[in-house]
C-alpha cells in the first residue's frame, strides 16, 4: 500500500528562470554530484505502481544506489495501478508530487501539459538511450520524461498450432483481409473450443495502428481533436463482423466470460498485443508443452507497417521538486548502472538504454521480444502524437460503444455517431 499519499512537502514550482537555474546548477556541479553527506543527506522521494515483485527488485536497486551515493536518501512508495493514479491526480492541485515518479505514456500530456513535470533536457543525461526511444518523451517540443523500457505492437501466436494445422506463418506485409482469412482457416482446422483469433476491432490502439498504416492518425497533430472520419470508423467496426457471424472468433458472450478465450488460456492461436505481453503468457503456455512466438501485425499497406517504439513506462521529475539534480542522478542510475540493470531485469520491459540492455540477462520470453524488435526495426515509423489528457476516457468510450455493436444493440454507423459525440464532449472538458 502507498504510505501517506497526500503528505505535503511545501515546495515551490520550478518554472522559467527557476528551472533554468536548476539546470545550470546541475551542469556546474559536473561529475561531483549534488551536495549532501552520509550524515546529512539530500532527501528525495520516488514512487511507482506495480506488484510486490516489482517493489522488491526496485528497492534492491535503490539500496544499491544508496551504497554508491551516500549523500542522497531515497524514500520509496508504491501502490497498485488504480490507487497509484488516484493518489497522484489528487496531489496535482497542491503540486505535491514525488520528486521522481513512474509515468504511464497515455497520461503524459495530463501531467506534462499542465506544468507538473520538469523539462529534462540538460538535467538527465540521455546519451546512452537506444535510438528512437526518446521520441515518445517529447511533449510540445520539450523532453519531459525518459523511457524505462520499450515495446512494439506484435501478433503473439502459437507456432505449434500453426504446425498442427499445416498452415504457414505469414510474413511481414500481410493484410487485414489476409489475417481474417487466416483466423477463419485456423478455427476450422483446430476444432471445437479453439479459435484462430478474436475480434480485434474493439481495440482503440489497433484502430490507431490501422489509421497510421493508411497515412492517417487517431488524433490531430495538437491532440485536440479526432483526425479520422465517421466513415472510417464504420469501416473499422465492420471488418470482423463476418468472422463473428460465422463463429470463427469467440462470441461476445464467450469473450466476456470469466475464463475468456485467449492465447494464455490455451484457446486462441493469435492475439495482437504489445510484444512484452508475451512475458505474462510464457509460463502458462510453455509449462503445458506449448510454444509462443511474435510476428508483425497485419497492415493496410504492405509498405507501411506503422510500428513504433512505445515506452512500457517512463520516469519523470516533478516540477515541484527542489532536488532536480539528485532526482536526475537516481534516474540515470536506475536506467544506466550495469549492476542496477541486472537487479531490475526486464520487470519494466526491454531496457531503454544500451548499457542496461547489454548488462541484463534476458530470460527466454524477453529474448523472443528482443529478437522480434530487431526484425521489425526496419519498419519502425515516427511515434504518433502524445495522446490527449482525455485519452483514457476516450479509449474507454471506444470499447464501451463498440460493445453495443457486438451485441447488435447498435449498427456500426449509429455507434460511430455516438462515439464522435462523446469524444467531442471529452475534448471540450479539457478546455
TrEMBL record:
The keyword Signal applies. Residues 1-27 form the signal peptide. The keyword ATP-binding does not apply. SUPFAM superfamilies: Periplasmic binding protein-like II. Keywords: Signal. It comes from the Bacteria. It holds the Pfam family SBP_bac_1. InterPro entries: Bact_solute-bd_prot1 (IPR050490), SBP (IPR006059), TAT_signal (IPR006311). Gene3D superfamilies: Periplasmic binding protein-like II. This is Extracellular solute-binding protein. It comes from Glycomyces paridis.
Amino acid at each position: 500500500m502507498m504510505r501517506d499519499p497526500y503528505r505535503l512537502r511545501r515546495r515551490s514550482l520550478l518554472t522559467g528562470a527557476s528551472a533554468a537555474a536548476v539546470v545550470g546548477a546541475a551542469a556546474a556541479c559536473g561529475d561531483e554530484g549534488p551536495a549532501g553527506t552520509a550524515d546529512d543527506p539530500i532527501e528525495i522521494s520516488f514512487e511507482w505502481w506495480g506488484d510486490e515483485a516489482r517493489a522488491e527488485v526496485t528497492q534492491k536497486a535503490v539500496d544499491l544506489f544508496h551504497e554508491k551515493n551516500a549523500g542522497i536518501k531515497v524514500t520509496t512508495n508504491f501502490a497498485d495501478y488504480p490507487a497509484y493514479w488516484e493518489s497522484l491526480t489528487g496531489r496535482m492541485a497542491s503540486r505535491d508530487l514525488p520528486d521522481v515518479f513512474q509515468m504511464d505514456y497515455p497520461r503524459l500530456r495530463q501531467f506534462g501539459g499542465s506544468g507538473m513535470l520538469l523539462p529534462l533536457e540538460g538535467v538527465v543525461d540521455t546519451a546512452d538511450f537506444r535510438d528512437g526511444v526518446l521520441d515518445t518523451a517529447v511533449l510540445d517540443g520539450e523532453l519531459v520524461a525518459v523511457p524505462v523500457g520499450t515495446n512494439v505492437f506484435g501478433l503473439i501466436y502459437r507456432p505449434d498450432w500453426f504446425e498442427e494445422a499445416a498452415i504457414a506463418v505469414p510474413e511481414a506485409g500481410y493484410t487485414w483481409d489476409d489475417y481474417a482469412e487466416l483466423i477463419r482457416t485456423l478455427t476450422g482446422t483446430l476444432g471445437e473450443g479453439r479459435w484462430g483469433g478474436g475480434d480485434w476491432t474493439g481495440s482503440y490502439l489497433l484502430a490507431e495502428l490501422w489509421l497510421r498504416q493508411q497515412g492517417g492518425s487517431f488524433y490531430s497533430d495538437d491532440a485536440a481533436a479526432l483526425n479520422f472520419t465517421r466513415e472510417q470508423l464504420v469501416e473499422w467496426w465492420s471488418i470482423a463482423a463476418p468472422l463473428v457471424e460465422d463463429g470463427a472468433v469467440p462470441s461476445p458472450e464467450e469473450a466476456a466470460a470469466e475464463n475468456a478465450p485467449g492465447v494464455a488460456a490455451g484457446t486462441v492461436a493469435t492475439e495482437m498485443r504489445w510484444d512484452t505481453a508475451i512475458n505474462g503468457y510464457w509460463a502458462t503456455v510453455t509449462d503445458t508443452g506449448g510454444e509462443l512466438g511474435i510476428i508483425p501485425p497485419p497492415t493496410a499497406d504492405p509498405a507501411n507497417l506503422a510500428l513504433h517504439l512505445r515506452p512500457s513506462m517512463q520516469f519523470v521529475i516533478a516540477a515541484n521538486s527542489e532536488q532536480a539534480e539528485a532526482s536526475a542522478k537516481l534516474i540515470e542510475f536506475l536506467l544506466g548502472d550495469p549492476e542496477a540493470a541486472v537487479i531490475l531485469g526486464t520487470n519494466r520491459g526491454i531496457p531503454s538504454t544500451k548499457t542496461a540492455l547489454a548488462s541484463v540477462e534476458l530470460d527466454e520470453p524477453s529474448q523472443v521480444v528482443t529478437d522480434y524488435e530487431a526484425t521489425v526495426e526496419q519498419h519502425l515509423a515516427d511515434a504518433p502524437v502524445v495522446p490527449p489528457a482525455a485519452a483514457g476516457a476516450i479509449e474507454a468510450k471506444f470499447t464501451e460503444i463498440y460493445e453495443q455493436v457486438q451485441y447488435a444493440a447498435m449498427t456500426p454507423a449509429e455507434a460511430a455517431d455516438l462515439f464522435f459525440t462523446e469524444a467531442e464532449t471529452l475534448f471540450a472538458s479539457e478546455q
